[in-house]
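Posted in: Protein Modeling Q&A

I'm a second-year student putting together a small comparison for a lab meeting, and my supervisor asked me to include a predicted structure for Histidinol-phosphate aminotransferase. I've never done this before, so apologies if this is the wrong subforum. The sequence is pasted below exactly as I got it from our records. If anyone can share the structure token output, I'd also love a short note on what stands out.
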Amino acid sequence: MDYSKLVNGGLARLKPYQAGKPIEEVQRELGLSDVIKLASNENPLGMSPKAIAAAQQAVVNCHYYPDANGYYLKQALSDKFGYDPACLTLGDGSNELINLIFQCFANPQVNVVLPELSFIVYPMEATVAAAEIRTIPLKDYFIDTKALLEAIDDKTRLVVLANPSNPAGTALDYDTLKDFVSKVPESTLVVIDEAYNEYQTTAYVDTAKWIEEFPNLLVCRTFSKAYGLAGFRIGYMVSNAQIAALINTLRAPFNVNAVAQAAAIAALNDSEHLHKVVQVNNAERERYAAYCKQQGLKMIPSSANFVAVDFARDAQPIYQYLLEHGVIVRPVKGYGLDTILRISIGTPEQNDKLFALLTQYLQENPLK
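Accepted answer (user: helix_wrangler)
Welcome! Here is the predicted structure, written out as tokens:
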């Protein structure tokens, strides 16, 4: 019996998502003790000490189910950003929220508009829903909002874009983004995935506040990146209250665990740690730009906590060389970017090691 014939939508056409190699796997496979991971866009400075303390305290009561509605976390988000708690949905990372949005709104009768090189989860979810996927080319790795608008018709249910984007790292300026949202028909939902939102260098604009003007806007965020809670898997979505109620109806009970909720509340209230994380990241991002310029490499302009570097040759041998020397980065062949490696920005010491290894490789293997 071929059970793939029984699955829903286009699931049988998909391949499992390939996460970045964990440190333990590389240590085991290559017999290395000193391994650094610059592959999954994690926060190398770790979570706030206040979040660690809150998580440790919350563990004591983990024989009870968590608050299914996340009352205190929603209140903390309301206090910090001014959101109406009725407009908030909590998720097992922003990834689950994206999944819920597609479950709720995508189907074989509608189409979904996505920029080229979108986070691979978006087309995966659209495929499972058997929705038509319209992929719109980028302009020099930036999202082309004019082309996105031209692709929308009366059957377009969702437009999903990440800002900053992944795996490119580019970001639209807020004026361009708001102009785009204002021109999308109200019957088409616009989903902005802001996983890397805190790392932007431009003057901050809270796009979630636009929901009062544009009720078809949904903004997804995560605590996995700048807040350093990747292992806890927690994120949130801001939308109009009706959409939040629909998504919350579909959401599994107790989807966000009690320890994650406690850690997220504490992380939100530690602005000093977040500021340090962003400051270190953005300074090191400038170092990457300077290094690539020195080495004659093209780095795609990044507003995130990673960079995409074009080596103008097959990047797989470079990836393998770094791996064998204890540095894990991310090949992006799955996106058709054979010459590019996506590199998460580490601590200054970790980046020093990467630069030294890359310099050595490039000297020993000059581009012909």
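A couple of things worth pointing out for your meeting: The chain has a mean pLDDT of 94. The first strand starts at residue 36 and ends at 37.
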